[in-house]
Amino acid sequence: MAAAALMLLMMSAAVLTACGSDDDDNTTNPATDTTPVAAVMDYKLTVGDDMLGVLNLTVEYYDADGKVQTEVLTAKEWKKSVRAKLPTTLGARLKVQLKDGIDLAAIETFTAAYGYSYNGYAVSATDKVVGNVVNHGIESTLAMQGDKIPTWLERHTDGIVKFLYAFAANGQATSSSWQ
Asked: Is residue 19 one of the residues assigned to a domain?
């Protein structure tokens, strides 16, 4: 009986030692962490055949290092996803210019068909979306005579598509303007 009591006492001590409080643990559970660490922007631009054939098309966008990059658009669709540490600025614009040697008088009808969409958001270390989400998309088609193209281009010298957002350290995004 004494041996059984001693064994019961030792088991109780072991159980009580194993029980403890997590109140002293100051670490954050990564599964519930909502601290923003990065911003993500998914870009997509599309253009029609007339635009590819008649215009020089360039895409300017902010990369992960906060620098503006330029890419020549040579296909009907351009997509990119950028992830940058907060705070950051992310956005893109499509610039257009008439190609050399284009005979505008020979163009009976020019169709400026283009579209864009973007989806921007901040994420935590576990890629949980935090903060506000910014997104938009549009498709546009405008037909004109060839001799009207220069006037249309003059109205869009800073880009026919442009969007820019400043993502603060807290993950909140606010609209900004290209300079």
From this structure: no
